[in-house]
Amino acid sequence: MRVLSIQSQVIFGHVGNNAGIFPLQRQGVEVWAVPTGLLAFNPSYGPPAHRPTEPAELDAWIAALQTRPEWGQIDAVLLGWLGNPRTAEAALRAAQAVKAANPKAIFLCDPVMGDSDSGLYVQDSLPPFIRDHLLRHADIATPNGFELEYLTGSKVDDLPTALAACDALRAKGPQTVIATTLKRRDGGQNQGVEMLEALLVNRDGAWLCAVPDLGHGLPKGAGDLFAALFLARLLKGRTQKKAMLFAMSGTYAVLRDALERKAPEMRLEAMQDALIAPSHLPDIERVR
After folding, report:
1. Is the pTM higher than 0.90?
2. Residue percentage of the chain with pLDDT more than 70
């Protein structure tokens, strides 16, 4: 199994490629990691000395990689943080090149653009490009709740609006949408405990998967980890429903560990067993 992962890369911490490479490798997946930018650390710590990757540089890397005989054996493309439309265009060209060499390759687009506590952290012109161009070619999209609202222009605060927003996003291209970090006013509790949910919507139906909400102040990169774990399990032949269960479980275990230890970053190496066989079984129900 082989994945082309096009995301940001940090020297310290676990976001972007640094949140996805090790979990994919731990599942037995070979990763070709292409950085869309190099940072000292994630920007929540302060100025990260960011060096963005020029589109021409990304194009050159992809052109060189296509000379390898293994290029036609790439099983999936994982897109994460892109930063601006020019980089997104180059990433899309890379994804299309993979699909041209292997039409069965999965294209997962994680439309990283912001979250509820920090707002938008990419160029304002990037979300429209993702919505109108990038998603048209994707097989799977994994927006968080903030990104789902931003891409669809609709408020998502209950199950009907969440389903409608996922359907609207599916109409733009991806057959499958998984909305992560959902919080609903019409549910989302288990025996008085607030729950954090992911909603999987595909042509076969819709499922809600829930874990206890760990609150604020958690390490960054959870969405990047979720996308990597989901994709890894999918490549191993699991159904999308089971892949989502696994990804939710592994992500929850890693975040809970960080919270208990007051760790500023996810401890992926220390929690590597949870990336293979997480112990917490999330709640899941079919909602359509």
Report:
1. yes
2. 98
